[in-house]
Amino acid sequence: MGGLSMRIMLVGGTGCISGDIAALAATRDDIELWLLNRGNRPEFVPEGAHCIQADISRPDEVREKLGGMEFDVVADFLSYGVEQLENTLGIFGERCRQYILISSVAVYRIRAQCEIITEANTIVGNTLWSYGRNKILCERRLQAEHESSGLDYTIVRPAFTYNRLRILHPVGPSHQRYSWTIASRILQRKPLLMHDDGNALCTVTHTEDFAKGFLGLCGNPAAYGEAFHITSDEYLTWNRLAELVGDALGETPVLCHVPAHDLGFELGGDFGEKLISFANNAVCDSSKVRALVPEFVCTTRFAEGVKRTIRFYEENPEFKVIDEAFDRRMDEIAAKYGS
């Protein structure tokens, strides 16, 4: 559909994961890159990308701007529920050869703390977190679309990703634009909240590495009808992650450990469910994608990646934005449970 090059549409394209996928795709001569978003972050649009400024929740507006365009690959980063997916499928389902849904390892039901999460053997059926349950429903809807229309699809399940903006911490602001809140607390010696004893394992992946695996699935017939983790093989405890963030800042973090259920009650809603889910180890195996995409080699360890993140903030201080309300709430909870 894109002539000699593969025409890829990223629905989003400037977020935590999609931003580095766009950056890598823009360097490739064999990819014609398109982004569809509201244009709120033009500074993260790579040179050479074609941009359509529109709100995906307004399908008539999007269709008008797309005209008769078709794509080899459409990657959906913005469907968090079936209603959103229905909308995006309605726009792009007949315009693409491959539809890639960004799901999450949150779809899994962890049966034992020693379990290694694999696509083949780990049960899809998270009962703890509504985010994971909604992603499960999205996956099922996409599979049903394939059965009814023949649309080829691929499901991608990231784990814990970070980039130049996101400072990973389990109890932090919901959007990466406020990630500096965590760094600010460390620098001020204010306690960071930590669920349980902080020793649950997580799988961390820099989005520049993630992008290599993702692009290897684009236009790849062997990926059709399949689900893949795209994760590194770096497994760290949440305590160790906080220590490494502190090392990058030159300050030792103060941690306030709170039982996950208590912390979940204090923060409520989706955030509370997330923390209870995080109490489980999340060790992901990515052998499946590595076998299909040999160029997927993760070269950024967290200790180095977080230093690059902090360096970005130092070089671009305008991004040092604090979520004041969340910061105050962390103070209140830390005071209640003791630091």
List the helices and strands and how they pair.
Blueprint lengths: L5 E6 L4 H10 L5 E7 L12 E4 L5 H8 L4 E6 L5 H11 L3 E7 L13 E2 L12 H20 L2 E6 L2 E3 L17 H8 L4 E4 L5 E6 H11 L8 E4 L5 E3 H12 L5 E4 L1 H8 L1 H10 L4 E2 L2 H6 L9 H14 L8 H14 L2
Parallel strand pairs: 1-2, 1-4, 2-3, 4-5, 5-7, 6-14, 7-11, 8-10, 9-13
Antiparallel strand pairs: 10-12
Helix pairs in contact: 1-6, 7-11, 8-9
Overall pLDDT metric = 95
Q: Radius of gyration from the CA trace? A: 20 Å
- Spatial order of the strands forming the largest sheet: 3-2-1-4-5-7-11
Residue runs with pLDDT of under 50 for 5 or more positions? none
The number of helical segments is 12
Element-level helix/strand string: EHEEHEHEEHEEHEEHEEHEHHEHHH
Strand content: 15-25%
User: Percent of residues in helical segments?
Assistant: 25-40%
- Tally of discrete structural domains: 2
Q: Strand count, sense and closure of the main sheet?
A: 7 strands, parallel
How many β strands by DSSP?
14
Structural class by secondary-structure content? alpha/beta
- The shape is globular
**What would you give as the CATH superfamily of the largest domain?**
NAD(P)-binding Rossmann-like Domain
CATH topology of the largest domain: Rossmann fold
